[in-house]
Amino acid sequence: MTDTPSKEKATPKTAARKAAPAFASLEMPAAFREIAEKGVIQAKEAYDSYKSMAEDATDAMEDTFATINKGTTDLQSKALGAAKTQFNVGFDYIEKMLGVKTLSEAIEIQSEFARKQFDTLNSHAKEFQDLASKVQAETAKPFQDGMTKAMNQWKLAV
């Protein structure tokens, strides 16, 4: 019988165990460590910057939608007020026409009604146009401001 050392079966696990102490004693060079740390810091700054831009864009969209909602409510209110006015004017006209005694009186009431309707329609159209322009300007402002801010931040980040 000869004395031969027992041979372990070489497997990737055993090879890694034997190699681990050799790698454990190696240190990463300071230059590599510094580069890695700078890369992590830059990645964190970029993430924070893009996160901030996304939050600002979301806030701008929320402000825009809130302004659209308010503007739509104002337009609906104006439309309901105009409809109520027209409804009442129509009933007044019918009431006057029911009390007509002569053809000339009917023509006079009809002419007055047509003139008032034309003036009222022009007035309402101008009010709607002014309100719609105001809503459009107010709606665009938060979106434009938010997008300008986000783009400026993006330019600084890049």
TrEMBL record:
One Pfam family of this chain: Phasin_2
Record-annotated membrane-spanning stretches: none
Organism, as annotated: Microbaculum marinum
Family annotation (InterPro entries): Phasin, Phasin_subfam-1, Phasin_subfam-2
Protein name per UniProt: Phasin
Residue intervals of the Phasin domain: 51-145
Domain of life, per lineage: Bacteria
